[in-house]
Amino acid sequence: METLHTLLSALLLIGFLPAALLLSAYGLNLCYLLIAALLNRRAPEDAPLDEFPHVTVQLPLYNERYVSRRLIDAVAQLDYPPDRLSIQILDDSTDETSQIVAEAVAHWRQCGKDVHHLRRASREGYNAGALAYGLQFVKSEYIAIFDADFVPPPDFLKKSLPALIADRRAAFIQTRWEHLNADQWWLTRLQAIAVDSHFSIEQQGRAESGLPFNFNGTAGVWRRAAIEAVGGWQARTLTEDLDLSYRAWLNGWHALYRSQISVPAELPQTMSAYKRQQARWAQGSLACARLLLPQLWRSRLPLGSKLQGTIHLLSYLVSPTMVLIVIAYTLITLLLPRQVWQNLPLIAYAKTVSPFTFMPLLYLIASQVLLRRSWRTLPYVLALQVVSSGLAMTIAQAALKGLLGKHGEFLRTPKWGNVAPTESAYRVQADSSAALEIAWGAFCLLTAARAASNGHLFFVFYGLMLCTGSWLVAFWTLLPHWQEALRRQHAT
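and the corresponding structure tokens:
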């Protein structure tokens, strides 16, 4: 039995040490990016355009009946010479979206706009496949891309193009996402804070430090030569934007970021839709890490860029890592005698709440201060930490799929425009994830109780946070479906 205890201790310790190092590295990196962003807040002054290069705007759509017309109208009204602007609507829809698009195209063509409605025989390659298909017909040197839920302002091209034109080795320029519906309800407020932190600190800090950062799939402009030079759009992951961005960096290109240029977009309005979005991003990011990290470390990029790129590509491992640490702690204290585990490094780690634990909180608060948001957003920062922890099971499952190379279907995040989610044709059905979240919350409550009896503050804190977050996420996942069931029952 003593040998078994020793073996179990060794296995759990071997799993814990890399996990603790990853969490510490993540916390340190948040400090670094925050400092980098704070030290570089002055917006670059880009000279206005003295000539207008030809630009193509690509709009990849798939079943977007509620927002497609809004997007097309906004792009058609960009303040840019009509003879220097082409619009490609890459429509893979299988519903009435195609008819809405056709009507919008007919209208704007009559107004003298160069608008093209492109349809493929199949949805092969999903978003990446649509962009690659459209690229065959592009003659422009610059390509702007917008997702269906974005509404670009009229001056977007005039503001974003000058820097890209001036820097011949810049592959793309990324702008900041703003929000159309941040104040709709508490979930959209939380998401707005998360998006703000990514764009005002992470993207800003990486860009100003000359480190690799990614095109976010929309609200940016690519140099066509860069896309073609690194192999074009590829559908080998669910995050084709991240994949293309890093292939550009690895081939000697760099990128530009402008926080002062913003494009508003719609945030997911239901928990199920939000979880779908986060799962796709996590799976795609870890798939990119599996494919690109060997190339990154063989490249001639500076060591700092390699380390930052590694942390960036592996960032979605934070949630699964926390899950592993919680499981390791609980198993150690339940299965091993106290005299065996009381001197393990994991237990020393468990007795205090590390300063790194609070770095994400400071990071989120700083983003709201930097963007001069209302002080009323600050109470939502803590709620975001709790809800984000509740996505641990969703992220962990998706991350595992990405690391194992499982591609899966590109499940789009539904957009609803002004239509209520309960009346939408694009509802996301609840799945088994809610049951797993309830079970995981119960395990975390057990962990918190176990930690309290042992005087281990770190796991009391994390156990309660993970439990609360998991149960909240499960409840808000299931609530719309319970309400729908009740409505149907009353109707009959």
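(Above: one complete record from the training split.) The chain has 18 helices and seven strands.
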